[in-house]
Amino acid sequence: MPMRAHPPTPLREQVLHANQELFRRGLARFTFGNASAIDRHANRILIKPSGVPYDQLRAEAMVVTDLDGGVVEGSLRPSSDLATHAALYRAFPHIGGIVHTHSHYATVWAQAGREIPCLGTTHADYFHGAIPVTAPMTDHAISGEYEANTGGAIVARFKTLDAGSMPAVLVAGHASFCWGATVAAALETASILEEVAEMAYHTIVLNAEAAEISSALLDRHFLRKHGSEAYYGQRPSS
Which residue among the candidates 39, 125, 146, 201 is catalytic per the annotation? Predict the structure, then answer.
């Protein structure tokens, strides 16, 4: 199959919609956060332009880059987090979209440098275990190629984790990144992450000794939705 030269127009609309939804859902205030998608056939990333208010975004304003973050289309600067997105696309070839937010509760856990424990089945329905947090970045990593090194910190944290069954991470002292097969899926994960982050926070406030659910309950809830013999929801029509 020949490689496309440019990403298709519908993908621009999907990236625009995801970015605007971040604001509508309260996951990204002001100009915090960004969403991107990748066209794997063209090896092109589409991402929000840096600092542009969400209500001023247009599909044609999405910046197109290569997998190394080099701009190939667009007159605006890409998101300052582009290098992090690019690192994740290179490391996780199964993902098609990434969402980065500074949503309140997920960011609280990231700032605390704490994983979000799996305290209940709502969490287990979507994430196969505690939401991981990266190791704090060194001064050298911060003063160097900071955004690329942020991506490196995430990839390092996932050396022993499956990015498919754990589609989210907290960057210590920073905020969250979520991903999925599409940018719409990544957006949904970011919304659910914020919900379970708030639930976990309030659970710990009510009971500081609250324990994570058993591995049996975790597996049952996660696998009934995402396992090879999943039975949650309806079968696709033939």
Answer: 125
Tens of pLDDT, residues 186-237: 999 999 999 999 999 999 999 999 999 999 999 999 999 888 888 888 877 7
> Does the predicted TM-score (pTM) go above 0.85?
yes
Catalytic residue list contains 125: yes
Domains defined along the chain, listed by start = 9-226 (3.40.225.10)
Query: Is 81 one of the annotated active-site residues of the chain?
Result: no
Q: Which of 41, 57, 50 is nearest to 5 (CA)?
A: 41
**pLDDT tens figures, 120-132:** 999 999 999 999 9
Neighbours of 47 (CB within 10 A): 28
Region of residue 9 (phi > 0: left; psi between -120 and 50: alpha; otherwise: beta):
alpha
Please provide the size of the chain in residues.
Answer: 238
